[in-house]
Amino acid sequence: xxxxxxxxxxxxxxxxxxxxxxxxxxxxxxxxxxxxxxxxxxxxxxxxxxxxxxxxxxxxxxxxxxxxxxxxxxxxxxxxxxxxxxxxxxxxxxxxxxxxxxxxxxxxxxxxxxxxxxxxxxxxxxxxxxxxxxxxxxxxxxxxxxxxxxxxxxxxxxxxxxxxxxxxxx
Length: 170
Prior knowledge:
Blueprint: E1 2-5, E2 11-14, H1 19-33, H2 39-46, H3 67-71, H4 73-88, H5 94-97, E3 103-104, H6 105-112, H7 116-124, E4 130-133, E5 136-139, H8 141-157
Antiparallel strand pairs: 1-2, 3-5, 4-5
């Protein structure tokens, strides 16, 4: 298994990609590291016709993101590369752009009436938006509230809509 930690602190785990996917990932990695490649150019590459991870039957001009694509950890890696490029070019400034990640896991757990391990499990399943700062998960009040609304609606209806979870490690 290949391991990758995203800028947000999520740990991705995925099997060795097929040759075509690995070749495309190599292009993306090189473009991410290349100072001459802009964020917009990387976006065009990620969502273009050459990306073998995207569903190429959805749009004529480029690939589509379907629930299956969202569940693919390689796609999560690609999104992380976009975030890294945005950070490199100053389009994304974590101290500024993620200032609303103010809640600790303990605070979120208390608000939700859950055990802290349940909150971490929801974070790792990409059900609760969170970022790691100094090794500690932080959440937004809005994200925690939306999670609560979603969970309450799911309990009332007795079913959960299909979610687009990414398989993550530990």
